[in-house]
Amino acid sequence: MLRKIRISLAAVFLTGLSLLFLDFTGTARHWLSWMAKVQALEAVLALNVVVIAVLAVLTLVFGRIYCSVICPLGVMQDVFGWMGKKAKKNRYTYSAEKKWLRYPVLAIFIIALLSGIGSIVQLLAPYSAFGRIMTMMFQPLWKMGNNLLASIAEHYESYAFYSVDVWMKSLPVLVIAAVTLAVLAVLAWRNGRTYCNTVCPVGTVLSFLSRFSFLKISFDTDKCRNCSLCSKSCKAACIDYKNHKVDYSRCVVCGDCIDSCKFGALRYDNIHLPKKLNAFKEDVNKSKKDVNASKRSFLLSSALLATAALAQEAKKVDGGMAVIQPKQSPERQTPLTPPGSLSARNFQQHCTGCQLCVSECPNDVLRPSTDLMHLMQPVMSYERGHCRPECTRCSEVCPAGAIRPIDREEKSSIQIGHAQWVKDLCIPIKDGVECGNCARHCPVGAIEMVALNEDDEESPWVPAVNENACIGCGACEYVCPARPYSAIVVEGHEVHKKI
Questions:
Q1: Residue pLDDT tens, the chain, 499 long
Q2: Are 1 and 293 in contact (CB under 8 A)?
Q3: Residues 6+ apart with CB under 8 A from 67
Q4: How far is CA 222 from the centre of its chain?
Q5: Closest by alpha carbon to 125, among 283, 117, 265?
Q6: Among 75, 76, 71, which residue's Cα sits nearest to residue 38?
Q7: How far apart are CA 255 and CA 63, in angstroms?
Q8: Are 499 and 413 in contact (CB under 8 A)?
C-alpha cells in the first residue's frame, strides 16, 4: 500500500509540474502553480515559512518522501530507473555513503548561493534542472504538436487550436539541458538514485533530518532469510541486508524493498517501539498490520495534500500576445529584470533559473541569460514582444521570490528601465520619412514627437523620451521599424523605481 500511494502521488506531481512548464496558454498555472511553490529550495529562497515547516515535519515524520513524491527530478529518475529495471531486474547493490563527494558538493552549492554565483546554483538545484529540461527541450515539441493540430483544425474550419511561434530561446541552455537529461538518464538507468544521494544539495540537507524520522523501514531479523532481494531492489543502494541495516540518510521511502521481500521481514514503522509490543499486536490481531499500513498511507497522502492546500494562492488573468517580425537584440549596459524583482541584485540572489517564468511569458520577452556568472537566469529583451502593463504572469508563478507578486496597477507604476533614442538609426533621420511608431504605441505616454530643429520648418520629427514617466516596458523598442536594431532601446535600472 505504501508503494502504491507513493507512485500515485509522485505521478500527480510529475504530471502537474510537467504541464505547468509545457502549457503556453496560461491555463495550467491557475491550478498547478502551487506545485512549484512547495519545492524545497524555492521555498527557502522565497522565505515561505509555512512550506519550509511542513516539509521539515514531513521529513521528520515520514523520512525523505519529498525526494520520491514532490521533487519532479527525483520522480523523473524513478521513471528512468523503472525502465532500466524492466530490462534487468534486481540489479542494485548496497554501497556505502560517498561522503567525500556528497558534502563538498553541498559546501560548494552554499558558497555559490551566498556569493551570488548563479550558474553553479542552477546547475546543481534539482527543480531548476527539471525546469530547464522541460522548457528548453519538451516545450518546443509540445508547441509543434499544437501547431500540427491547429493546421488540421484550420483545414476543417475549426479554431479550437491556434498556432504559436517555436523559436530557440538560448542554444547554450538547450545544450546544458540536453546534457543534464542524458547524464541523469544514464545514472538512473544504471544505478538508480546516484544523483540524489551524491550530488543533489536538497537531498543532502534533507538527509540530516531523515536520520531522525519517526517512521522508518526496518528489519525483522527473525523473518529475514538474507536473500538480498531488498538490496537488489533498493534504488538508493542504502540497504545492507547482511547486517540488517538501512542508511536512513539516503532512503527515500519508495517502498520497493518492502514490496520485493517475500518473507515479510521489512516493515515501515517506528523502530523505537518495544519489540515485545509489536509482537503482542501481531499475536492479538494479524490484520492490524494492514490497518496500520492503511493509516500510514492515509497520513502520508493527507500530509502531502495539506502541503498543497497551504501553498495554494489566488490566481490572476493576463492579456494576449501581439505577433511581430523579430529583430536583433541590442547590447544593454544594464540588463532588464522583470517588474516585481525589485532590483538586479535581489533577482540574482533569489532566482534559481528554473525557467518557469520563461515558459509562462505570453509575449516572448523573457529568455535565459548567456552571461557566465548568471547563466540561465532570465533576462528581458524586446525583439519578439514587449512587457504588457496588464500582464503579471511571471510574478504569479515565480516560486523562489525572485519576482514578487504584483497586481496590474502596481506594475504600471514600476520603472524597470527607461527608453533611449538612437539618432543614427531613426527612420526620419536615416530614410527621411515620417514614423512616430514609438510615440503612438507607448502605453504610458512617455514619448512625444518633436522637431529635431525648432528653427527649421522642414526639420524631421523625432521622439523625445520623458524618462520620469517611462516604465521600460519596451513597447517603443518592439514596434520600431528600424532594422536590424531598433532606433529606441530600453536601458535597465539596477534598482527599480516607483513613479
A1: 788 999 999 999 999 999 999 998 888 989 999 999 999 999 999 999 999 999 999 999 999 999 999 999 999 999 998 888 776 666 788 999 999 999 999 999 999 998 888 889 999 999 999 999 999 999 999 999 999 999 999 888 888 888 998 988 999 999 999 999 999 999 999 888 999 999 999 999 999 999 999 999 999 999 999 999 999 999 999 999 999 999 999 999 999 999 999 999 999 988 655 454 555 555 555 555 454 555 555 454 555 545 544 444 434 344 454 444 457 888 888 889 999 999 999 999 999 999 999 999 999 999 998 888 888 999 999 999 999 999 999 999 999 999 999 999 999 999 999 999 999 999 999 888 999 999 999 999 999 999 998 888 888 999 999 999 999 999 999 999 998 899 999 999 999 999 8
A2: yes
A3: 74, 193, 196, 200, 202, 203, 206, 252
A4: 46
A5: 117
A6: 71
A7: 12
A8: yes
Largest CA distance in the chain: 105
Residue ranges of alpha helices (H) inside 266-323 are 275-284, 288-311
Q: How many residues are recorded in the chain?
A: 499
Cell output for 448: 512625444
Cis previous bond, 484, omega within 30: yes
End-to-end Cα distance, the chain: 58
Tell me the Ramachandran region of residue 182: left when phi exceeds 0, alpha when psi lies from -120 to 50, beta otherwise. Answer: alpha
Instruction: Give the pairing of strands 366-368 and 414-421.
Output: unpaired
pTM of the model: 0.84
Q: What is the DSSP string of 71-136?
A: -HHHHHHHHHHHHHHHHSSS--------HHHHHHHHHHHHHHHHHT-HHHHHHH-HHHHHHHHIII
Name the DSSP letter for residue 343: B
